[in-house]
Structure formats: C-alpha cells, structure tokens
Specification:
This is Putative restriction endonuclease domain-containing protein. InterPro entries: Nuclease_put_TT1808, Restrct_endonuc-II-like, Uma2. With 192 residues, the protein is α+β, with helices and mostly antiparallel strands. The chain has a single domain, classed as tt1808, chain A (Alpha-Beta Complex), CATH 3.90.1570.10. 22% of the residues lie in helices and 30% in strands. A six-stranded mixed sheet has the order 4-7-8-9-10-11, with helices on one face. It is globular and about 50 Å long. It starts with a strand and ends in a 9-residue tail after the last helix.
Length: 192
C-alpha cells in the first residue's frame, strides 16, 4: 500500500481511532499525523492474499494469530500505528487488545515502487526496536525476489535474499516454502 500524508491536526491515538472509524479508507498514524493508505497493484494484492493465506493455514490450531492488511500494529513504545500487509503474533498480550497488536513476531510488507525505500529504511528502523519481532519479510511485487530481515540469537539483524528456486525459511513461525508458491501465475512484466 502507498501512504500519502493527509494534512490534519495532530491526533492522539484515542482521537485517531475514533476519527479513522468515520473515514472511507485506512490511515496510518505517525507522530500525531495521519497518512492515507492507497491501493496497490493487482500483483501486490494477489501476493498479499497468498502470503496471508499461507501463514493462516500453517498456524491454524496454534496459539498464534495471523493478521492481514486490516490489522494495525502499534509501533513498540510509541503512539504510532501502521498497517502492514500481513503479520503474526504469538504473544498473549496481543489477545487482550481489540484495535491493534503490539508484539508481532513476523511482519510482511509487499513492496511497491513508491514505498520500497520507506519499508526498507524508516519503517524497519521503527519495527526493529520491538523485542518480539524476529522476522521482517519484504516481498517484491515486480520480480521473484524476497528479502528477509531475521534477528539472530545474538540480536543482530541478518539479511537473506531469496531468488527463483530458493526455499524461504521463516524461523519465527517454523515455516518453509518455495518462493514460487507466492508468485505462481503472476504477470511480472514491468507494465504489470
């Protein structure tokens, strides 16, 4: 999804939740400012659905919960809220909230040309301060390519690049899958 700043007065989280319920689209909240979430490409949508379905099916009958792009994430120890394309939480503290989760172990962003730099840079800087986060998955919507930022046991973030023929491994939820499973049947030409 593409975030576009909306010029509104600074909002507290409480006012943001009430205000957003009255809006026709979703908004992220960053430092009191709201940013409209606009639609993505057909490939973006199909990839997001496939990943969310894959995660949900893998975690069915487990204590973990899968969220789609309608589930807000509260950036750890801030009043900022984002809408990633998919997320997973296995933390009991997230079972007591109704408008967002705070402790995801996995966050997935499907990359769009307009948001890729922010997803890789500023947004990841915010996400990585969360002690519960173990895997941050960035999925290309224009080529068969996935980058995984994985937190090692030593607390360092490692970057693993997956290409055609690779098996993606998400240690946070004990899931491995062939990268082609996400891209099957998609038109990945530049015009798509």
């Amino acid at each position: 999804m593409i975030a576009a700043k909306d010029n509104q007065p600074a909002l507290t989280p409480e006012k943001y939740f009430v205000w957003e319920e009255q809006q026709p689209e979703k908004y992220e909240l960053m430092d009191g400012q709201v940013y409209a979430m606009t639609g993505g490409s057909v490939n973006h949508s199909r990839i997001a659905v496939r990943i969310t379905t894959l995660l949900f099916n893998h975690l069915d009958n487990s204590p973990c919960e899968t969220g789609n792009s309608d589930l807000r994430i509260n950036i750890f120890e801030t009043n900022n809220y984002t809408y990633p394309d998919a997320s997973v939480t296995c933390d009991d503290r997230d079972k007591t909230t109704t408008q967002y989760i705070t402790y995801p172990c996995l966050i997935v962003e499907v990359l769009s040309p307009n948001t890729e730099a922010y997803d890789r840079g500023g947004k990841f800087r915010l996400y990585r301060h969360n002690p519960a986060l173990q895997d941050y998955l960035l999925v290309s919507s224009t080529s068969i390519e996935i980058d995984l930022y994985h937190k090692s046991d030593a607390g360092e973030w490692l970057i693993i690049n997956y290409q055609p023929g690779d098996t993606v491994e998400l240690k946070s939820i004990n899931l491995s899958f062939p990268i082609e499973q996400i891209y099957r049947g998609l038109n990945l030409t530049p015009d798509a």
